[in-house]
């Protein structure tokens, strides 16, 4: 396993321990991109889980033997565990992690009190996507897109190669999530970097125009690129998310 790719969990303490937060990293990344976020929420007393998705945090070759049902199963199991240990659960996802937690929201509506998305990936404008069914059979990988971070000297630890079989599976996840977006009714907080070299703004637009949630907030990040949880706007993301969690899990008349 890669350095700093370990999972992170905290049981929670104090009055906030009644709330669990499940955080998902993105495609070819690892818990490294979400650990500071998770640690911040754990310091506030929330129960926190930042799992490592199968095939991530090891080698891209290993990831090429996994697909979206494998990644999703880990999150679904963690959601079930958190629901047993906490009164309420909020889910948080970065990039592909956004698509995965949206799928959780689609399938487990009553079990999720809120959804936080950071540069969610549910679509692409890249025309090469249509070639993946053929390319993935003859080419194992493409050059990766990692470390899209404005802040100097920060390394998210993602793969330098993009495994194409897994990329094809990701595209299938997008289609599933897109179809059921109207099933999302939970409060949603969406952060979008105004400059993102990995996920186009149209992906966030698709989410915002398709979900059925009435409580929706979009926050633009002016000083971060794609991996915003490790970038200049990270403190704002952490603080705004904590406030969102407190609001959506608090008393109805609060």
TrEMBL record:
<dbReference type="GO" id="GO:0052689">
    <property type="term" value="F:carboxylic ester hydrolase activity"/>
</dbReference>
<protein>
    <submittedName>
        <fullName>Alpha/beta fold hydrolase</fullName>
    </submittedName>
</protein>
<dbReference type="InterPro" id="IPR012354">
    <property type="entry name" value="Esterase_lipase"/>
</dbReference>
<feature type="domain" description="Serine aminopeptidase S33">
    <location>
        <begin position="21"/>
        <end position="231"/>
    </location>
</feature>
<feature type="active site" description="Charge relay system">
    <location>
        <position position="196"/>
    </location>
</feature>
<feature type="binding site">
    <location>
        <position position="96"/>
    </location>
    <ligand>
        <name>substrate</name>
    </ligand>
</feature>
<dbReference type="InterPro" id="IPR029058">
    <property type="entry name" value="AB_hydrolase_fold"/>
</dbReference>
<feature type="binding site">
    <location>
        <position position="27"/>
    </location>
    <ligand>
        <name>substrate</name>
    </ligand>
</feature>
<feature type="site" description="Important for substrate specificity">
    <location>
        <position position="145"/>
    </location>
</feature>
<feature type="active site" description="Charge relay system">
    <location>
        <position position="226"/>
    </location>
</feature>
<dbReference type="InterPro" id="IPR051044">
    <property type="entry name" value="MAG_DAG_Lipase"/>
</dbReference>
<feature type="active site" description="Nucleophile">
    <location>
        <position position="95"/>
    </location>
</feature>
<dbReference type="InterPro" id="IPR022742">
    <property type="entry name" value="Hydrolase_4"/>
</dbReference>
<keyword id="KW-0378">Hydrolase</keyword>
<dbReference type="Pfam" id="PF12146">
    <property type="entry name" value="Hydrolase_4"/>
</dbReference>
């Amino acid at each position: 396993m890669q350095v700093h790719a370990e999972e992170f969990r905290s049981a929670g303490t104090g009055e906030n321990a009644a709330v669990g937060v499940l955080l998902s990293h993105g495609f070819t990344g690892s818990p490294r991109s979400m650990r500071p976020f998770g640690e911040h929420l754990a310091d506030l007393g929330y129960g926190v889980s930042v799992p490592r998705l199968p095939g991530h945090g090891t080698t891209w070759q290993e990831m090429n033997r996994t697909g979206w049902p494998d990644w999703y199963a880990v999150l679904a199991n963690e959601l079930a565990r958190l629901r047993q240990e906490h009164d309420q659960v909020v889910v948080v996802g970065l990039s592909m992690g956004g698509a995965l937690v949206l799928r959780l929201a689609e399938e487990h509506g009553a079990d999720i009190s809120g959804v936080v998305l950071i540069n969610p990936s549910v679509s692409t404008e890249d025309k090469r996507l249509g070639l993946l069914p053929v390319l993935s059979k003859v080419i194992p990988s493409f050059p990766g897109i990692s470390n899209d971070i404005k802040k100097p000297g920060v390394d998210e630890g993602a793969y330098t190669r993009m495994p194409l079989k897994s990329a094809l599976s990701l595209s299938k996840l997008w289609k599933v999530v897109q179809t059921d977006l109207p099933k999302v009714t939970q409060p949603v907080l969406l952060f979008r970097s105004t400059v993102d070299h990995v996920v186009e703004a149209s992906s966030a637009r698709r989410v915002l125009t398709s979900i059925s949630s009435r409580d929706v907030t979009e926050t633009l990040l002016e000083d971060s690129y794609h991996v915003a949880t490790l970038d200049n706007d990270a403190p704002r993301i952490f603080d705004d998310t904590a406030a969102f969690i407190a609001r959506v899990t608090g008393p109805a008349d609060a």
